[in-house]
Every structure is written in structure tokens, then in C-alpha cells.
Amino acid sequence: MTENYNQTVPIAILGSGIGSNAGALVRFSDLEACCYKVVALISDNPDSGIIELASTALIPSMIIDRSQNALSISTQLTSILDAHQVQVLVLAGYNRLIPARVLEHMGGRVLNIHPSLLPKFGGKGMYGLHVHEAVLAAGATETGITVHKVSAHYDQGTILAQSQIPLEPNETALTLQTRVKSAEHSLYPAVVNAFCKSLLTST
Ligand code: GRF
């Protein structure tokens, strides 16, 4: 990559839900050592915490119309990404496939976090509490987190980092979700930061 980002890589965060990971990513961006700047917060859900976060953090927000087909969603996303010169698209609780056109447009610089040790408990329908319920139903003794590059298939891109979390006695899907999310809030900003740092140092 030859662009000069002036020491920070412009990133956008896309999600549909609570937005706790988006919050952690935005908080991390205040640190001096941070190599990225959050230039856009995007959601397909007007009620997402991501939109509220945008107004408190004074970051531009956009809502994409999820009722449209993949072609229209690609056009909506690529025009936002281009308008803000986004170099890395970071998914945080976005539960739909990213259209191939957007992946191509971003040159593969699209990241996601998944609340299990992929390839275990990944794929279509594996999101939110469903993941943790499946972990408990399988009698697993540990779960974890995976940060990966996004591909055209659910939860299948190159794995960038994983972190293990042992299950505790009397664990429920809700207690697991709380503990996994809290670990996500440390791991995701660190991995996004390392990814952006590698872009700054590559030529
Ligand atoms: C997280 O558990 C993440 O791993 C998954 O979706 C959830 C989003 O949570 N992809 P939040 O909206 O960041 O609170």
C-alpha cells in the first residue's frame, strides 16, 4: 500500500446491535499508541447502539437500508466507504454476509470478531446467544473468541487471532456471553490496531 495515512488508518465500524465492541474500538482510538481513526459508524438498524455511540463520540454515522438487495447494499456501503476514504471495514455485530463486491472493493481489508473458537460454532445462524447455547449443549470445556478476515462465507476467512476462555461451573449462555464480550473488548481493538499498524509499515 502506498497511501500516506498520516500515521493513522481511517476505519469504519459496521454493526447491527448493542455496539459494545464498537464502543471499545472507539475508546481505544483515544490512546496515543492507536494506529487507526474511526471515521464512520455504520448500521443497518436505526436503533443500534452504534448510532447512539456516534452521537456521543461525535463521529459521522450512516444507516444503510437492509431491506434492499445485495447490489443496493454494496452500492450504499461502497459509497460511504469511499466518501470517508475508509481503508479498513471493521464488523462488530453485523450478522449478514458482506457482498463480494464490497470485499473486492476493500481489497480484503474487512475484519470480524466471532464469539467462539472458529471453526467451532460458526456459520449461518451462529450469532449472539445461539453460539453460547451451542457451546453449552456440546458439553465443551472451553470457548473463546476469534478475529478473522471476512470472506464470502460466514465465519470462514483467515484467522488473525484467537483467545481461549474456560467454562465455569453453572455457566449459562448469558454468563458466557457476558464474559466473552468483556474479553472481546480487549482483544478486538488490539488486533485491529496491529492490522492497521501493518498497513502503515508496509509499502
Ligand atoms: C459480539 O459478541 C461479536 O463477537 C459478534 O456479535 C456480538 C456483537 O456485540 N460478532 P456488540 O454489539 O458489540 O455488543
Describe the structure.
This protein has 203 residues and is an alpha/beta fold. It contains 6 helices and 7 strands; from the N terminus they run βαβαβαβαβαββα. A 7-stranded mixed sheet has the order 3-2-1-4-5-6-7, with helices on one face. Helix 5 crosses helix 6. The radius of gyration is 16 Å and the shape is globular. The protein starts with 8 loop residues before the first strand and ends with a helix. It binds 5-O-phosphono-beta-D-ribofuranosylamine (GRF). 5-O-phosphono-beta-D-ribofuranosylamine binds next to helix 1, strand 5 and helix 6.
Short description:
With 203 residues, the chain is α/β, with parallel strands linked by helices. Helices cover 37% and strands 21% of the residues.
Give me the secondary-structure topology.
Elements: E1 9-15, H1 20-28, E2 36-43, H2 49-57, E3 61-63, H3 70-83, E4 88-91, H4 100-105, E5 110-114, H5 129-137, E6 142-149, E7 159-166, H6 173-201
Parallel strand pairs: 1-2, 1-4, 2-3, 4-5
Antiparallel strand pairs: 5-6, 6-7
Helix pairs in contact: 1-2, 1-6, 5-6
